[in-house]
């Protein structure tokens, strides 16, 4: 059991941290012995086998005092870079990991004694920043929050503290992958005979494709496909040729038997209001969810999930409820949302929860890929009680669009492989957003998408809809780990799960520590006892 000593304002963030690092913990109680204590309020008077002190004013008497304090740093630990955003204490050179580089000098932002680990920043301040502000694009590829968890876990392992955690992945897979699609356009016929969309389509399909061939960014075959698509537009308008923008059909063909989540725009011709209070008419779309009722219902019957591609839900609960009701009128029960253009504010979580959404998947980047919150686990946004955030990891336009990174397809896939490798290491989810017309002319981003899916499958992912992944993480969050004063840990859940979780047991053996995994579906509690023979007993109560 981990005891936590923190300022009352930090206990909510601590609770969320320990939903991500799912292990037994509680606010410290006077007189109780703990296997480990995590302290961020400066207290050090605990009966514990391991004391982990976090804070820029960290010290124990004269054991160690910071030589300097600075705002923000990049710490190095175990080959990883951990960006820090609050106050960071720098200790004398070489005292212990993690370390910080300043010019040519190396300083520790941590120190070690026999039973004490000191880290020169406030863990919960860092977690709060990640879950409210997020990290800048410069650190997008760093799973910062997962590294904070890994650092604390390493302290427990090095100190040979026995503990139990529930891993952030289902049993039998390495991570969860969610295939999602923002439906900004549904049918090119809605834009004929001519509007801004058609003008862009014709330019990019004809002259733009030729320029891409010259630059080596597109094959002659693809350019020829695009030119044919441009020439066929009059016949599409007359109904003689099938509409080339049919996202449900296109993704069914590529993904079968996997099922996607489609985010549908609730109202046509509504641009909404931007974060600066302005209105950009180009944000409005030419269809709405009820226009594609038959296609949407058919997709839902095949097992796909439909969710809201919100317009003003991020800034107004009343608007958000109207947008959700619009989709629910054709697909009852729809309760997920991702904002169009990824609009967001600090008040958005409260608005979305008040509007009746159960999850959001907006937290990502428009111009790059990676971890805005430093984690790929579903997490609870501060200020809400039920709404979970399923962070967006990879978006096609961020990689391939000419006004974004404009990568060659092979380079884009190679960049994604780094995140796939991280998903294997840390678990959680890999949430892909491949837009509605990305498989069709004039984008023709099918090849990198197929390659990406093959890499993800080979990496051991379990494919779930966005709502399915959130449901699994919500069930994991319902699991309780209760430790008795004798260090007997009981793991139980109020309901069962079709997809089991993994209980990982860490136990000291000899001079080292070993780990073992136990599948857990919630049918019966699992009890682990660590004294007097550490983890000698581990059984399921019938």
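^ structure tokens above, recovered residues below v
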């Amino acid at each position: 059991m981990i005891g936590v000593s923190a300022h009352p304002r930090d206990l909510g963030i601590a609770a969320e941290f320990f939903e991500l690092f799912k292990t037994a913990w509680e606010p410290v109680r006077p007189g109780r012995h703990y296997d480990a204590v995590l302290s961020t309020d400066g207290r050090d008077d605990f009966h514990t086998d391991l004391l982990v002190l976090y804070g820029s004013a960290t010290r124990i008497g004269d054991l160690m005092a910071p030589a300097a304090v600075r705002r923000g740093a990049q710490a190095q630990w175990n080959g990883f870079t951990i960006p820090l955003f609050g106050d960071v204490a720098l200790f004398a050179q070489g005292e212990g990991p993690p370390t910080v580089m300043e010019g040519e000098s190396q300083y520790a932002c941590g120190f070690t004694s026999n039973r004490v680990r000191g880290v020169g920043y406030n863990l919960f301040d860092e977690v709060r920043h990640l879950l409210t502000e997020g990290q800048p694009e410069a650190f997008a590829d760093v799973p910062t929050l997962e590294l904070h968890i890994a650092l604390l876990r390493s302290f427990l392992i090095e100190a040979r503290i026995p503990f139990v955690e529930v891993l952030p992945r289902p049993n039998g897979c390495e991570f969860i992958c969610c295939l999602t699609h923002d439906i900004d356009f549904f049918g090119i016929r809605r834009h004929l005979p001519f509007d801004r969309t058609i003008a862009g389509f014709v330019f990019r399909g004809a002259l733009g494709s030729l320029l891409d061939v010259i630059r080596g960014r597109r094959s002659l075959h693809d350019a020829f496909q695009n030119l044919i698509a441009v020439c066929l537009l009059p016949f599409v308008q007359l109904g003689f040729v099938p509409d080339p923008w049919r996202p449900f059909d296109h993704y069914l063909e590529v993904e079968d038997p996997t099922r996607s989540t489609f985010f549908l725009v609730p109202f046509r011709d509504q641009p909404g209001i931007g974060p600066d209070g302005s209105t950009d008419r180009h944000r409005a779309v030419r269809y709405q969810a009820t226009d594609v009722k038959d296609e949407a219902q058919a997709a839902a019957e095949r097992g796909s999930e439909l969710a809201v591609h919100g317009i003003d839900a991020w800034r107004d609960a009343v608007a958000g409820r109207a947008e959700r009701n619009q989709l629910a009128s054709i697909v009852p029960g729809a309760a997920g949302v991702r904002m169009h253009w990824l609009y967001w504010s600090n008040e958005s979580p409260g608005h979305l929860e008040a509007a009746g959404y159960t999850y959001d998947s907006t937290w990502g980047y428009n111009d790059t890929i990676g971890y805005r919150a430093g984690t790929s686990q579903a997490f609870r946004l501060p200020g809400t009680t039920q709404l979970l955030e399923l962070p967006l990891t990879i978006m096609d336009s961020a990689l391939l669009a000419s006004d974004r990174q404009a990568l060659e397809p092979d380079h884009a896939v190679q960049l994604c492989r780094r995140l796939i490798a991280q998903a294997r290491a840390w678990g959680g989810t890999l949430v892909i957003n491949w837009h509605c017309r990305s498989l069709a002319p004039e984008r023709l981003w099918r090849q990198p998408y197929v390659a990406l899916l093959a890499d993800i499958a080979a990496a051991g992912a379990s494919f779930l809809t966005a709502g399915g992944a959130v449901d699994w993480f919500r069930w994991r969050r319902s699991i309780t780990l209760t430790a008795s004063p004798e260090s007997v840990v009981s793991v139980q859940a109020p309901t069962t799960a079709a997809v089991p979780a993994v209980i990982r047991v860490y136990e000291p053996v000899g001079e080292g520590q070993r780990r073992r995994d136990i599948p857990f579906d919630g049918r019966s509690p699992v009890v682990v006892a660590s004294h007097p023979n550490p983890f000698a007993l581990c059984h399921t109560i019938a």
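DSSP finds 14 helices and 28 strands in the chain.
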